[in-house]
Design brief:
This protein is mainly β. Helices cover 6% and strands 36% of the residues. It is elongated.
């Protein structure tokens, strides 16, 4: 098996640790496990023994003490959990999900870590710091440790593979070393080389020598280090490349004086390039080449050098000049300085410490002393055999784009390819070589090592093997059968081999023998290719493998086996969870339960079912926790369909992702939901589709639209009601949409009551001053729209004229009305666009322009002014709407002398009789009125009908619009007081009717008479639409007489209906009628036209059609009723008029007033 697990036990504090006393320092020994194989690592057991002694001398052992075990988080690097035992007693299991420190008995000597059942480390994975063993010094005397003492800790363990029934062992020991001096330096060599298969000649190797301060307290400021030499001693196969030396000073260290360490012209900026001082081959007879750099003396500055820190690196490149054997291409680095440690009593010296300390045996510094210590470290270039025959097997699955050395993927029933490559790196051609390939099958083993390969399924040959230089033979015998029992040599010689097969899928193995006269020349690569096939077996586990390798023998040598290659069974799957989306956020939240037994079907992109090998649709059911798994065996575009539980829905938004709901409702079938179409490919073989299921609720949106008015809008108070057929509406919620907001959403409203009856939702808005409200829409996805149209407030605009002086007969003047908006003056015009004027004849001093808006449609204030024309002989002055005309006295010119004329005799008029003029009675002027000339009735016999309704400022009536309860209250209050002032002493006793509103007095007055009633919850709902049943109840309470007619039995008014008796009385009196289908629709909102028609019938008000038709100019009329069925009824209700009652109860109108 390629690769093997390794275990490394490290130490958390630096390997070289200085402490003057044994105090209670803690030491952490982290344990890291790496699985370097291609299989899952199972059954791992780690034992850390002898914790009371560790690996140390007798002086330190009694001072060490075990404290505890830190179990680290392994999620993501290890599958499953592990347990920890202390002296064989279980401390805790199920570890690995979070970091946890476990205290153990003080005398514990043995810690064991074991994988729990089914746990494993995946191939090529590492579990870093899986467990940390924590130890400490016990408190003791204040004596110093022995210079150079060290402590260590050895761990042992076993591991294995499920596929390979073998137990393997390992061990590892890290160490602490204790030193009693300061300062100290150490060296470490790093290096790299091109990993070539074949000769290394002319390859470049880079060596990196790093120098450290290994002193725990650091190197103090002012310390002098008398550096002398830095030497790289290399084997003869390595040659220095000029110009490649680089001095890298650790960031932040340039203030310590090290930038001038080399005795060359050093550029202190950044990375420095300096060649060595000398290069001496066969240095002092060593057979090696010395590359020498002379160094300067340095003084540590800038506060000293921190503990355990890298100071500088010297990097140099070398070229490999000859092929060498392993371990021959080596480099040894030496760092020497003159003030090296010479005596334990000299504390200001700088010592070479640890494993890197060595004697200057070759006297590199040239002082004649070969016993002084320096720093030394050795680095060997990685080496592969230069002369070899290499064999590589590769594979390309049916979904792979190219061959791979390691593993490929293939789909069910598809063919895939193998390649065998022979690399001849020997010095001679190969003339005799034989290959043996045992095809993968369950229970197969490696040909040479005889350990299981771990194949889960077989991959039979698709056809003959292509090999031009080889003779190919096939056998149906088994290598590991009873006959050969795994003996490859006997199998190769004695199995039944044939050169062809009728059915190549029956072959268990094949061999290739180099043809006579053929060879594989030196340096040549030869390839062999053949096809295998993935069998059709849907029971093969997901990600199962078929592992193959090939063995070879040449020139009479034993079998060698090439690295194995794997073919993975490629499957494509949907996984996920069906869950109750309690939070309605389309995300799986903690605590949300799964839904079991939901049918899940796999479909093609076009919606047709995906079938298995038996032609049956591929389906599954969700598990108890709601999870599911469904797979197919070929790539393509798929989706899943789920049959959701009854009376449940899914959210409309498709969130997707690992935790989001990824399904949507089917528009044609409410019982199922679908995922989006997903393209399952090699790179995307698995997709997660969760389904968040919710109980059937809905949201209702309310959008607010403001038409006209000031920029700052008032708050809007809206009320949500719900009702079922035959019941009174109930208030659900009262909410305020604050100024600046244009929408409100009612979330999570149940669609039905507890009995399954569907709710109908409606909304109202409280009356907003100076705005007309129109509510449209229903409780569907679009919701309701509230349109608030600004109705500018009005006021009487009256201009007055004052005459000062002048004749009593005043001139006729014309008063022109002007308006100023935002500083801009313009004429006020009538509905036809003509300037609005009033002509005043002599004696008339008031020009009443009637009710005019106080603001424009955007809420801007209108300032009215007037302009008078026709006041000749007068000066005109203005004060707002007041006009003052001051007479201008005429100036008589002085007489002019004329020529003499004869005097004119006086004329004497005859006397006339004095005649007294007749007394003219005062004229009663009715503004806008009209007298019928041919039949004027005495005033005392006239009757009067007052106007009880009016239209809108835009000259419309909106006959088919709704009417509110407050507006109906005002109608009947006016009827009750015959158009006079409504009494104000009746305070309405409703929670939603406050004093001061335009309708408050009317509701209070009519409620006191029992005509109007509120709701059980204490509200009146003034802005709610009034229904046909509610109006029938009001008119029969207002007029209690019962006529002689016959009651109408409406099909939708049951005797149990709350207004059944009122509707019956109203139909007897002829006040209400139904619809052609025999229904009355009691719960339907009544229109404005239906309301005035019902009230007219009850009050015996009948329009004079002749008057209406002949004199429309005198009437208050509207632009949207000319063709409406209620044309005359609306005129009757909208115009105050005097009339006579005719014999047939009809009316003859005499005149209208208050147009």
């Amino acid at each position: 098996q390629k690769g093997s697990p390794t275990n490394k036990k490290g130490i958390l504090i630096n390997s070289f640790h200085e402490t003057p006393y044994f105090h209670a320092d803690e030491y952490s020994w982290p344990i890291t496990v790496r699985n370097q194989s291609e299989m899952n690592l199972n059954n791992l057991v780690i034992e850390d023994k002898g914790l009371d002694f560790l690996r140390t001398n007798k002086d330190l052992a009694p001072r060490m003490n075990f404290i505890g075990v830190k179990a680290n988080k392994t999620t993501g690097s290890m599958v499953g959990t592990y347990s920890i035992f202390a002296d064989g007693i279980l401390l805790e299991s199920g570890l690995g999900g979070e970091v946890k420190t476990i205290k153990v008995p003080i005398n514990t000597t043995n810690i064991t870590i074991k994988m729990d059942k089914d746990a494993y480390i995946p191939p090529r994975n590492s579990v870093k710091d899986m467990v940390s063993i924590i130890t400490a010094f016990k408190e003791g005397p204040d004596d110093k440790p022995v210079d150079g003492n060290s402590i260590g800790n050895r761990i042992n363990g076993t591991y294995g593979y499920v596929e390979v029934p073998v137990e393997l062992k390992y061990s590892h020991t890290p160490n602490y070393q204790y030193l009693n001096y300061q300062p100290a330096l150490s060296i470490f060599n790093g290096g790299s080389a091109n990993a070539l298969r074949g000769p290394y000649t002319n390859s470049t190797v880079r060596f990196n020598s790093a120098f450290y301060n290994s002193s725990a307290p650091g190197i103090t400021e002012g310390t002098e280090i008398e550096f002398s030499k830095f030497v790289m001693l290399v084997d003869n196969g390595l040659e220095y490349i000029p110009g490649t030396t680089k001095l890298n000073i650790q960031k932040g260290m340039d203030g310590y004086g090290f930038e001038n360490i080399l005795k060359s012209n050093v550029n202190p900026d950044g990375e420095l390039t300096i060649d060595p001082s000398r290069i001496i081959k066969n240095y002092k007879g060593s057979g090696k080449t010395a590359v020498i750099w002379d160094l300067n003396r340095v003084t540590v500055t800038n506060g000293g050098i921190a503990p355990s820190s890298n100071i500088f690196n010297i990097v140099a490149d070398f070229k490999m000049t000859i092929d060498t054997k392993p371990d021959e291409n080596a480099l040894t680095s030496y760092l020497l300085w003159n003030n090296n440690f010479s005596s334990p009593d000299v504390t200001d010296q700088v010592k070479a410490i640890g494993n890197s300390a060595a004697a200057d045996k070759l006297d590199y510094d040239g002082d004649g002393d070969i016993t002084e210590l320096g720093l030394i470290d050795k680095r060997t270039v990685r080496h592969l055999p230069a002369k070899e025959l290499q064999l590589l097997k590769r594979t390309q699955g049916s979904i792979d784009d190219e061959y791979t050395d390691n593993k490929s993927e293939t789909e069910l029933t598809t063919a895939f390819k193998y390649q065998i490559y022979i690399y001849n790196y020997t010095d001679n051609p190969v003339n005799d070589i034989t290959f043996l390939d045992v095809l993968p099958h369950p229970g197969d083993k490696l040909i040479v090592d005889k350990i299981p390969r771990g194949s889960i399924f077989e991959t039979p040959l698709e056809g003959p093997v292509k090999a031009d230089k080889f003779n190919v033979f096939y056998t149906e015998d088994e290598l590991n059968g009873e006959k050969f029992k795994g003996n490859a040599e006997e199998f190769l010689a004695d199995a039944t081999w044939v050169d062809s097969l009728d059915d190549y899928s029956k072959a268990k193995a094949f061999k290739l023998i180099l043809k006579p006269g053929e060879s594989i020349p030196k340096g040549e690569i030869t390839g062999i290719e053949f096809y295998s096939k993935m069998i059709h077996d849907e029971s093969i586990p997901e990600d199962a493998k078929a592992i193959n390798s090939v063995a070879f023998t040449f020139n009479g040598k034993k079998f060698s086996e090439a690295p194995s290659t794997s073919v993975l069974f490629a499957t494509y799957k949907f996984v996920g969870k069906v869950f109750m989306d309690t939070n309605k956020n389309n995300i799986i939240d903690p605590g949300e339960e799964g839904i079991a037994n939901v049918l899940i079907e796999l479909l093609h992109e076009d919606g047709t079912p995906v079938v298995n090998s038996e032609g049956k649709p591929i389906t599954t059911m969700s598990e108890a926790d709601g999870s599911y798994f469904i797979r197919t065996y070929t790539s393509g575009k798929y989706k899943v369909r789920m049959t959701k539980p009854n009376a449940m829905d899914v959210m409309s938004e498709n969130v997707g992702g690992d935790n989001g709901s990824g399904v949507s409702q089917d528009n044609n079938d409410s019982s199922v939901v679908y995922s989006e179409s997903i393209d399952l490919t090699k790179a995307h073989k698995k997709t997660i589709v969760n389904a968040g299921i919710i109980k059937r609720f809905k949201d209702i949106k309310v959008n607010l639209e403001w038409i006209g008015g000031p920029d700052t809008k008032p708050d809007s108070t809206i009320k949500l009601y719900r009702t079922v057929e035959g019941k009174e509406p109930e208030l659900v919620s009262t909410d305020t949409i604050t100024s600046g907001n244009l929408k409100h959403i009612y979330k999570g409203l149940p669609e039905t009551d507890e009995f399954g009856n569907e709710y109908t939702y409606s909304i109202t808005q409280d009356k907003i001053e100076n705005y007309a409200t129109d509510i449209s829409g229903v409780d569907d996805d679009k919701g309701f729209l509230i349109k608030n149209t600004y109705i500018p407030p009005t006021d009487d605009v009256v201009a007055t004229v004052t005459w000062i002086g002048g004749p009593s007969q005043r001139p006729t003047v014309v008063i022109h009305l002007k308006q100023t908006i935002n500083g801009v003056e313009s004429d006020v015009v009538d509905k036809d666009g003509n300037p609005l004027t009033i002509t005043l004849t002599s004696g008339n001093l008031i020009a009443n322009f009637g009710l005019l808006p106080k603001t424009d449609e955007n809420g801007n204030i209108i300032t009215y002014s007037v302009l008078e024309t026709g006041a000749d002989g007068y000066t005109v002055s203005y004060n707002g709407l007041d006009i003052t005309n001051t007479y201008i006295n005429p100036v008589t010119p002085p007489p002019v002398d004329e020529p003499d004329k004869p005097p004119t005799p006086p004329v004497v008029e005859p006397e006339k009789p004095v005649i007294t003029p007749p007394i003219t009675p005062p004229i009663d002027i009715v503004l806008g009125g009209w007298d019928r000339a041919d039949d004027i009735m005495p005033l005392r016999e006239e009757k009067y009908h007052f106007r009880y309704v009016q239209g809108y400022e835009d000259t419309t009536f909106k006959p088919d619009g709704d009417i509110t309860r407050a507006e109906v209250a005002m109608i009947f209050a006016r009827l009750s007081v015959s158009g006079m002032e409504i009494p104000t002493d009746q305070v309405p006793n409703y929670t939603d009717v406050k004093p001061g509103f335009w309708y408050s007095e009317a509701i209070g007055y009519m409620s006191s008479k029992g005509i109007l009633k509120g709701y059980p919850d204490g509200s009146f709902m003034p802005d709610a639409k009034i229904t046909r049943a509610e109006l029938a109840a009001i008119v029969t309470r207002f007029n209690t007489e019962i006529g002689s007619g016959t009651a109408i039995n409406f099909s939708d008014v049951l005797s149990s209906h709350w207004a059944a008796e009122n509707i019956s009385k109203a139909s007897i009196n002829g006040w209400v009628t139904g619809y052609p289908d025999g229904s009355f629709k009691p719960n339907q909102a009544i229109t404005r036209a239906e309301t005035v028609t019902t009230v007219n019938r009850m009050a015996e008000r009948y329009a004079d059609k002749e008057f209406v038709n002949e004199k429309p100019i005198l009437l208050k009329s509207y632009t949207d009723i000319s063709k409406h069925w209620a044309f005359y009824e609306i005129h009757e209700a909208s115009n105050s008029h005097y009339y006579n009652r005719n014999v047939d109860n009809s009316e003859t109108w005499n005149r209208v007033v208050d147009r």
